């Protein structure tokens, strides 16, 4: 958005600059001052964008440990002592940890230089923008209208969400575990959790059986992969331990009032940051749900802990229903569960062992074989096009690998457990396709093509099913047709 010279990108930059001028004006600046602030902010953000690693390469940045002294040498232009002290973790010499993890060393080094070269006033303009932009959704209708106009340009959004939805998302953001507890008590029977766990274990068994037959893996790497798979833990539905009572959390917030929405948002944000920093230097709780919530209609794999999180929100119709045919459940949420499991063995997840540590546990020949097979998937998705732009197969590779593995292992689990007839086999694939049905705005789809690690949903279905022989057999796709190519990609 910052660096491309195309007409479309120039239009987006102008809309962003106009938004900044409007919001600065609403925050109290004169028109001329608002334009100065916006220009300063844009200069800083453009420099930051130029220093950033491209999205498709950023996926492979794992981070490395830095002592505080090493950090000071890497980025001397940043006042680290003041920053650490400002967020409440003590000065450089009194931090409760001996090292920090830096994910993007080149960017941090460049940031240090940018902070020196830009000068204090431009940095102030940039920080003022971060403050105004971040809190605009919590301010008056004039701020919301300005954001709506910008989102219309970028995403095609033309109306504000209903007030009750805004209230829900705001409350869920501030007190997600409390909202989750109410949701689970109302909409998530224990049977759903038991069924999902049974499905996950069945899928893992099929994955394990598949690993044992992988002839492109040597015995050492194969055995370590099977150990990692067995170590992978599964958190389903919700946390096993809920937080303190709602009233106790309100007391921790302090100062929550019925007539000060903006102040309440600032208070809860501040509490969340302080609560997060309390964990600094303490033993990691690998099964902590963290940023995910039981209400999320999503699922996650965390490679740093080798764990899967399947929230109650996605174990609901139409993805899962204990009353519907199991073919639909396996084709939909079963493939999703298999997808998360496969993330542990995608192009990034494969580098982490069963304890969540990154180390070179793959032998060189197996790495080469993996990359050759993964390249087939990358090239396949790069061949797809929407709105004049090709899918970035390198950016979406991890998700495409996970979709492929998830489909395969959910399918094999379904066959192994239920021995379905032909109509149920077809229903499995229909459910998989319907999972990714969507109606999206053109502007939003174009934005996702540039920034999202997931392929467009259309190609998540076509690209994955076209490479899966059982689909072609079930629907009688002619050999050599679009949905049954002669040469297919095979990884997991």
Question: What does the secondary structure layout of this molecule look like, with pairings?
Answer:
Elements lengths: L6 H20 L4 H21 L3 H4 L5 E3 L1 H7 L5 H7 L13 E3 L2 H14 L1 H16 L5 H15 L7 H12 L1 H12 L2 H23 L6 H13 L1 E5 L8 H8 L7 H17 L22 E3 L4 E5 L14 H18 L20 H19 L2 E2 L2 E2 L6 H22 L3 H14 L6 H10 L5 H9 L3 H7 L17
Parallel strand pairs: 3-5
Antiparallel strand pairs: 1-2, 4-5, 6-7
Helix pairs in contact: 1-2, 1-8, 2-6, 2-7, 8-19, 9-10, 11-12, 11-15, 11-17, 15-17, 15-18, 17-20
3D architecture notes:
- One of its GO terms (molecular function) is metal ion binding.
- Residues 1-239 form the Peptidase M13 N-terminal domain.
- The chain has 492 residues and is mostly helical.
- It has 3 domains: 1-62 and 104-160, no CATH class; 64-102, no CATH class; 190-239 and 287-475, Collagenase (Catalytic Domain).
- 59% of the residues lie in helices and 5% in strands.
- The chain has 21 helices and 7 strands.
- A 3-stranded mixed β-sheet has the order 3-5-4, with helices on one face. A two-stranded antiparallel sheet has the order 1-2. It has a two-stranded antiparallel sheet with strand order 6-7.
- β6 and β7 (389-390) form a beta hairpin.
- α1 packs across α2 (31-51).
- 27% of the residues are buried.
Q: For the record, what CATH class of the largest domain applies?
A: Alpha Beta
CATH superfamily of the largest domain: Collagenase (Catalytic Domain)
Regions with little confidence, pLDDT below 50 for 5+ residues: none
What is the N-to-C order of secondary-structure elements (H for helix, E for strand)?
A: HHHEHHEHHHHHHHEHHEEHHEEHHHHH
How large a portion of the residues is in β-strands, by DSSP E? under 5%
CATH domain fold name of the largest domain: Collagenase (Catalytic Domain)
Keywords: Hydrolase, Metal-binding, Metalloprotease, Protease, Zinc
Protein name: Peptidase M13 C-terminal domain-containing protein
Cofactor: Zn(2+)
Domain Peptidase M13 C-terminal: 298-491
């Amino acid at each position: 958005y910052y660096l491309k010279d195309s007409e479309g990108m120039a239009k987006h930059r102008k809309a962003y600059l106009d938004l900044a001028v409007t919001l600065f004006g609403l925050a109290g600046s004169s028109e001329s001052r608002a334009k100065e602030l916006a220009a300063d902010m844009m200069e800083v953000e453009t420099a930051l964008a130029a220093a950033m690693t491209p999205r498709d390469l950023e996926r492979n940045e794992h981070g490395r440990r830095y002592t505080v002294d090493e950090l000071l040498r890497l980025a001397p232009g940043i006042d680290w002592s003041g920053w650490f002290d400002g967020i409440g973790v003590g000065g450089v010499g009194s931090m409760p940890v001996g090292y920090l993890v830096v994910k993007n060393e080149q960017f941090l080094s460049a940031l240090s230089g940018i902070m020196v070269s830009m000068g204090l006033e431009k940095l102030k303009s940039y920080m003022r923008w971060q403050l105004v932009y971040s809190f605009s959704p919590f301010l008056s209708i004039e701020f919301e209208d300005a954001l709506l106009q910008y989102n219309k340009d970028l995403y095609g959004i033309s109306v504000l969400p209903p007030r009750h939805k805004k209230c829900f998302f705001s409350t869920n953001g501030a007190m997600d575990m409390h909202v989750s507890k109410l949701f689970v008590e109302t909409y998530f029977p224990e049977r759903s959790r038991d069924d999902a766990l049974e499905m996950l274990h069945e899928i893992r068994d099929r994955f394990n059986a598949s690993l044992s037959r992988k002839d492109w893996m040597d015995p050492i790497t194969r055995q370590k992969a099977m150990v990692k798979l067995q170590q992978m833990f599964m958190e389903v539905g919700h946390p096993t331990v809920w937080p303190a009572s709602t009233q106790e959390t309100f007391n921790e917030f302090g100062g929550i009032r019925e007539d000060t929405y903006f102040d309440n948002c600032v208070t809860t944000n501040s509490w969340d940051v302080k609560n997060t920093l309390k964990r600094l230097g303490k033993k990691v709780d690998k099964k902590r749900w963290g940023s995910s919530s039981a209400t999320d209609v999503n699922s996650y794999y965390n490679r740093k802990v080798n764990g899967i999180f399947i929230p109650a929100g996605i174990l609901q119709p139409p993805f899962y229903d204990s009353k519907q045919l199991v073919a639909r459940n396996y084709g939909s949420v079963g493939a999703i569960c298999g997808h998360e499991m496969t993330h542990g063995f995608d192009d990034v997840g494969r580098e982490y062992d069963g304890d969540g540590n990154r180390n070179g546990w793959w032998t060189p020949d197996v790495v080469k074989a993996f990359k050759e097979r993964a390249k087939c998937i990358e090239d396949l998705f790069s061949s797809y096009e929407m709105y004049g732009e090709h899918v970035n197969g390198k950016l979406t590779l991890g998700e495409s690998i996970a979709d492929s593995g998830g489909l395969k292992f959910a399918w094999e689990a379904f066959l192994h457990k239920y021995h379905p007839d032909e109509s149920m086999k077809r229903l499995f694939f229909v459910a998989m396709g319907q999972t990714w049905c969507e109606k999206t705005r053109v502007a939003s789809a174009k934005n996702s093509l540039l920034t999202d690690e997931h392929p467009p949903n259309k190609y998540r279905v076509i690209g994955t099913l076209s490479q899966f022989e059982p689909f072609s057999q079930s629907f009688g796709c002619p050999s050599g047709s679009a949905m049954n190519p002669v040469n297919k990609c095979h990884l997991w």
